[in-house]
Amino acid sequence: AIVQDGKVISMRGYGVTDARGTEPVTTDTVFRLASLSKSFAGTLAALLVQDGSLRWDVRVADQLPAFKLADLQDTQSLTVRDILSQRAGLTHNTYDRDLESDVPYELLVQKLAQAPLACAPGNCYAYQNVAFSLIGDIVFALTGDFYSHQVEKRIFNPLGMYNSSYGRDALEASPS
Predict the structure, then answer these.
(1) If we measure between CA atoms, which residue out of 75, 69, 82 comes closest to residue 124?
(2) pTM for this structure?
(3) What pLDDT digit, counting tens, does each position of 61-95 carry?
(4) CA-to-CA distance for 141 and 41, rounded, in angstroms?
(5) CA distance 139 to 148
(6) Pairwise CA distance, residues 56 & 103, whole Å
(7) Cα–Cα dist 35/20, whole Å
(8) What are the angstrom distances between the C-alpha of 13 and each of 1, 16, 37, 66?
(9) Residues 42-68 pLDDT 10s
């Protein structure tokens, strides 16, 4: 969509839905968010901070008591700010291959207790997917509501994005 001065001046899809097919992309075609989803995580966290429900420097272990890293001191110092700024202290892309191989997220979070650390949390950058996803668990701990529903309720719906969804199940359920 092209928006100018708050008005949609053009909305259409370009290309085809599959490189081997001929079905055109439309405004209703669903695409995987992939790492763009991280901007929604940051936005939702900011909304919770704005509400007073969350602080950037809240310790993950205070919200998720079962969470563990390989080092107890590092476990106790990891904050929401560290997660959202990709400074969890883990090595680059920890357990991403397992995540892409459909190993359940919950098992990968448990495996973080054995993952090697590159530094103490907050001291170095290393892109993460598993550790970053902890924000969803924190959202649930704070709100009692699923992360995907909070994104829908607090971000998509207020923006009029009624056909947007979050997660693999919704993506695979889409007819386009």
Answers:
(1) 82
(2) 0.84
(3) 999 999 999 999 999 999 999 999 999 999 999 99
(4) 15
(5) 10
(6) 29
(7) 25
(8) 8, 9, 21, 45
(9) 999 999 999 999 999 999 999 999 999
